[in-house]
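Input/output pair, single chain:
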Amino acid sequence: MSIIVFGSINIDLVATAPRLPTAGETLLGHDFFQAPGGKGANQAVAIAKLGIPTEIIGRVGKKSFSEELINYLQAAGVKTDNVFVDETASSGVAIINVDDAGENQIVVIPGANERVNLEDVERLSQLLPGKKALLLQLEIPISSVIAAAKEAKKAGVKVILDPAPAQKELPEELYPLVDILTPNEVEAAQLVGFPVNGEDSAKKAAEVLLQKGVKCAVVKLGAKGVYCSTAAESFFTPAFSVKTVDTTAAGDAFNGGLAAAISQGFSLRKAIVWGSAAGALAATKSGAQPSLPDRETFDKFLQ
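Output:
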């Protein structure tokens, strides 16, 4: 039932302000805080906090934040034996602006994440047998993502790819290696080459992604809901209505909830509901990992 995550580990430096600044503008903000982040780490924590055994493979830098980042992961219940401390790099950093409506702008400096390579994939390959799923994102080199997906296929492990940060295109060889692809509207639009902003366009995007070779396309439409399509079925799931504070880790929470449900053998429809619930809860709090719900909060919300 356990899950493995292969991806980025960052420290998030977060500034809150009434609105997001325009180019060249200096704004007075409300607040500043730092919190653990990185799409890989966020997804690992999201799953672990829902009570599913979870391990992460990735890198932090010796020069900065490494101890804090590993401690944060361990405190959330994530196994970190295979987080490599890179002596020659700084840890990844994300600089995040959040406005009063909960919208954000993010600049990521990859640091040690950029050095994730085939040595890390080799460590991953030893751990894959018997795992329920491998979660991947795009804050580490794409060559390592592809190699990891290939190893998962060999081991018969389901591959869940969050194609974020958004990319103009992915290597064609990656799509057939992916069991579940989970783009948001921006990421889906980049991958299919046309705007995605509602159920109709999400349906068209999902069709394109299935043609490219993914087994299941899950297009996240934020407050509008989620469109999901496979060769066997297609359906739309409305979003949960919540008061949005900060959407920073909502997408990671979605993938965590989705993976947690799949690890327990639930149906795809139920897994999408779990993802939607986890994402909605994450959007009600500030920060990346601090916003991710624990199992008790999650179960109460679902009821």
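The domain at 3-10+37-92+112-302 is CATH 3.40.1190.20 (UDP-N-acetylmuramoyl-L-alanine:D-glutamate ligase). The chain has one domain: 3-10+37-92+112-302.
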